[in-house]
Prior knowledge:
With 165 residues, this protein is α/β, with parallel strands linked by helices. It folds into 2 domains: 1-45, no CATH class; 50-163. Helix content is 40%, strand content 10%. A 4-stranded parallel sheet has the order 1-4-2-3, with helices on one face. α2 (79-82) links the parallel β2 (65-68) and β3. The longest helix has 15 residues, at 31-45. The two termini are 21 Å apart.
Amino acid sequence: MTPPLSPGGGLPExxxxxxxxxxxxxxxxxxxCLGVACRMMRRRLTVMRIRVKxxxxxxxxxxxxxxxxxxxxxxxxxxxxxxxDGWHKEVAxxxxxxxxFGHDPARWDEFCRRYFAExxxxxxxxxxxxxxxxxxxxxxxxxxxxxxxxxxVALKAYLEAHARG
Length: 165
């Protein structure tokens, strides 16, 4: 069993009685404290870099893996011009949900609720995106004109929530 955190929120007391933070010299911590220290450091290192961007915008080096997450191919865009690393149609909302939403901001909250329910039913569709984001930068690409109310924005929130556990 690992010991609880100290009253100050840091690691339990080290040899000598003083409290140590996660950045302390691990060699001076009691062996039971090492598990806590490792978990704290691992949480800090699991930083996901998920961006959202219109597929029509030019690629940039910060994009990392460029993944289209729309069910339909964006109008007027040639495949070569998209500079994609993947097209994940299966993670997009169902045709029925997409048509119902119609990019109406008044339906945004209900769209997210329904879309998240669809994603919950298809973890095999979104887990590869989550794993890719844990390894490096990922940009979720979409074709909609509304940059605040679209499936890529909702998917980013969903993935970030699942990364936290």
